[in-house]
Structure formats: C-alpha cells, structure tokens
Amino acid sequence: MSEQFLDTNVPGNPAYHFTIQPPVREGGAGWLRRPELVPDAGLATQCVHGGVQPDPAYGAVMPPLYLSSTFAFKDICTNAGYDYTRSGNPTRTALEEALALLEGGHGATCTSTGMSAILVALNLLPHGSHLIATVDCYGGTFRLLEHARRFYGLEVTYLDLADLGALQAALRPHTRMIWIETPSNPLLRLTDIAAVAAMGHRHPDCLVAVDNTFLSPFFQRPFALGADLVIHSTTKYLNGHSDVVGGAVVSGPGRPLLTQQIQSVNNLLGTSQSPHDCFLVLRGLKTLPLRMRQHEATAQQLAEFLLAHPAVGKVHYPGLPSHPQHDLAQRQQKGFGGMLSFELKEGGNKRLNHVLRSLKWFTLAESLGGVESLVAHPASMTHASMTPEARRSAGISDDLIRLSIGLENVEDLRSDLAQALTFP
Ligand code: PLP
C-alpha cells in the first residue's frame, strides 16, 4: 500500500469502504445523553450534565454556542422558541437550567454581572417597599441599595442579621425583602438563613434573598433553608477562571411565577448575559466540585497558619473553631469555602503596604473565586464605595486584608504569606 493511504479513514483508500464505515447521520435527538436522569443525580454529575441537552443537529457533546442576536420566524407566530437574544438564547437557557438544578430552584435568569443580578432582584419590589439588608454586605450591593434609596424611594434598613431580636423589631408591614449575604464579604460573618427566613415569612409578600456567591451551591443550598431567591455573581466560583463577569438570579422550588418575573425583569432592564459568557460559565461549572474542595482544603490550612502567626491578630474563617459562628457554619454549610480575611496585630498603612507589596503568588486585585490566589484591601478596594462610618459600623477596619485562596500548592502560598509577614 502506498504511503498516501496510511490513514485508512480517507475516501480514496481502497480499504476505506471495507474497514471504516462513514457515520450514518440520523440527527442527534436522543443520542449520548440521558437528561431525564440528571435531576436525581449527585451534584458533581449535575455540574457536568446540567442544562446540556442532546444536540439535535450533530450530537455535539458540548452545547453549541449560539451567538446569533436574532432568530427566524416561519410565519407571524411560529419560531423555534427564541426570537431575540436579550429575551432568550439557547446557550443562556442551558446555563439557566444548570444553575436552577444546582441550587434546587425552579428557574433562573442569567445577567451581565453580579450587580445586575442584584438589580433584577430589587426590581421585583413594588414602589414604596422596605428592604432589610445585612450590614456588612458587599460594597457594591451597599452602593446599589443606597442608589435605590435615594433615586427610587426604596426604604433600607441595615442590620446585623445575627441579631434576630433586632430583625423582629425592624420588620414593617411593607417589608418586601430581606437581603442575606452569608458568609459576608469581607468579614465572613454568617446569617442563620432558616431562622431569618422563618421570621421574614411571617410577613406576607416578604421575599428572602440570599447572595450565595461565596460558597456556591456546592457548599450551601439556601432554598433548603427557606430562601425564596438565590443571587450569584457568577464572576466568582461558578465560572472560576477570572475571565467572565456575570450574575444569576434563581427562583425557589415550585415558584413558576417568580421565575417568570425574574426572567421578564431581566429582559425589560436589558441586563441579560451574553451567550459567549454563558458558554464560559457553563464550562466552568463542570469542575466546580473539584475546585471548591481544593479551595477549601487550602484555605483551612492557611487560616490555621495565620491564626498561629505572631504578627497576625484576628483571622476570619468559618472553618476555624475560634470563629464565633463555627457551629452554625457546620450546621448550615457543607463546607467552609475558600475566602478568609485577617488583621495584622500591629496595623497601619506602612505595614499593610509591606504585606500587600511583598506577596508574590497572591495578586493584589479585586474579585475572588478564581483559580489564582488574590489579595485585596477591602477599605480601599472592594468596600471603598461604603462611607468610612458605614465600614466602621459594619466592622470593616482599615487594617483588614482579604484573601481569595486559589488552586496553587498550599506550601507555596504558606511560604509566600510567611515571607510577606516578616517585617524589616
Ligand atoms: N455579590 C458578592 C458577594 C460579591 O462579592 C460581588 C462582587 O465582588 C458581587 C455580588 C457583584 O458581582 P459582579 O462584580 O459580578 O458584578
């Protein structure tokens, strides 16, 4: 046989017709996947298979990326289920189905950023509503709530939600939402979701919303604890690779009307996520369990290292027995996550800058939840949008350092922290 026929899978090769039959193209429906099994599967299986339908065209194993902004109609009322990508897109639907599944919710809507997910949730509230928010929420959430207070007449009360007596006293007849962020950013304080939800639900029409960005559904399932809405910045752990900004709002189980509302508000605000970004988040989801387990294992070791370090004062990590809500973390969460924060025993800008400048594997940057370790100074970065008074009352000191623990070797990260905490 001549050299040119070494590859038998080539038309023209005399062996071709006898050895390898060309695939028979039957259309992909029913191939490869058993989507009906996914709802009862374990979370890791759901991360891999959630939202992924058999591809009717070619049997593609990965969902195709539909970039088209618009979709053809056959006549004035017939199309294939999509008309315009702001209102709906098959790639976005795949991600929304996956997220609803992972959170155990009814449905989801994916937004351009985590902030726009929060905006969608706030736009469910009728004019003149009152909202109660956790006092040490993400700085951007605080800024948006303040904006809504000043420009849209939303009444907002900030509370330490660990104080259930204060919550009870703050609830009003027109309280329409309680905003929980647990663990909170950057102090890793916890809120007892079940207790707050039970109290909130004594008030008619009050939605309990949980920002689940820090733990992801792998470590925390707010719907099982009574929440009505789950919010994500998918920019963080769900995508996990620091190459997308995105968000999601998920509606609770058995809430078709709420699903309809979040999807229609996302469409009317024009905040829906681009198909390309949805594709990337869907890809990120597949390794979520592996990443979360490793983030957590390394964070736990580094939190213990920092706690024992002579230059370090407070360490905030729910996995430490010294964390004031360690018991609640064990009860409410399936893991402690990959975020921690700490304060220097002896602070001040000079020493703070020494640490931030000396770190080599931790990049000084905003954001969190990616494969690479990051360090942030909340007072000047993530929480700079809060007034100094608001930061002070939330307990965020100017000396606080926040770490997002990546997937590097723990030994490298530990020795990096050790050298950065050595002062001249
Ligand atoms: N929620 C939390 C807890 C966050 O940490 C962030 C951002 O850091 C957001 C929401 C906002 O998300 P995004 O930056 O994707 O708009």
Give short descriptive properties of this protein.
single chain, 424 residues, alpha/beta, Aspartate Aminotransferase, domain 2, Aspartate Aminotransferase, domain 1, 3 domains, 5-stranded mixed β-sheet, 35% helix, binds pyridoxal-5'-phosphate
Short description:
The chain has 424 residues and is an alpha/beta fold. The chain has 15 helices and 14 strands. The chain has helices at 16-19, 43-49, 90-103, 114-122, 139-152, 164-170, 193-200, 216-219, 256-269, 275-285, 288-307, 326-332, 349-358, 388-394, 410-420; strands at 73-75, 78-79, 107-111, 130-134, 155-159, 175-181, 207-211, 229-233, 247-251, 312-316, 339-344, 363-364, 374-376, 400-404.
Overview of this protein structure:
This protein has helices at residues 16-19, 43-49, 90-103, 114-122, 139-152, 164-170, 193-200, 216-219, 256-269, 275-285, 288-307, 326-332, 349-358, 388-394, 410-420, and strands at residues 73-75, 78-79, 107-111, 130-134, 155-159, 175-181, 207-211, 229-233, 247-251, 312-316, 339-344, 363-364, 374-376, 400-404. The chain is an alpha/beta fold and 424 residues long. The chain folds into three domains: 1-43 and 53-62, no CATH class; 90-285, 3-Layer(aba) Sandwich (Aspartate Aminotransferase, domain 2), CATH 3.40.640.10; 288-420, Aspartate Aminotransferase, domain 1 (Alpha-Beta Complex), CATH 3.90.1150.10. Strands 3-9-8-7-6-4-5 form a seven-stranded mixed sheet, with helices on both faces. A five-stranded mixed sheet has the order 10-11-14-13-12, with helices on one face. Strands 1-2 form a two-stranded antiparallel sheet. Helix 11 runs parallel beside helix 15. The protein is globular. It starts with 15 loop residues before the first helix and ends with a helix. The model has no long low-confidence stretch (mean pLDDT 92). It binds pyridoxal-5'-phosphate. Pyridoxal-5'-phosphate (PLP) binds next to helix 4.
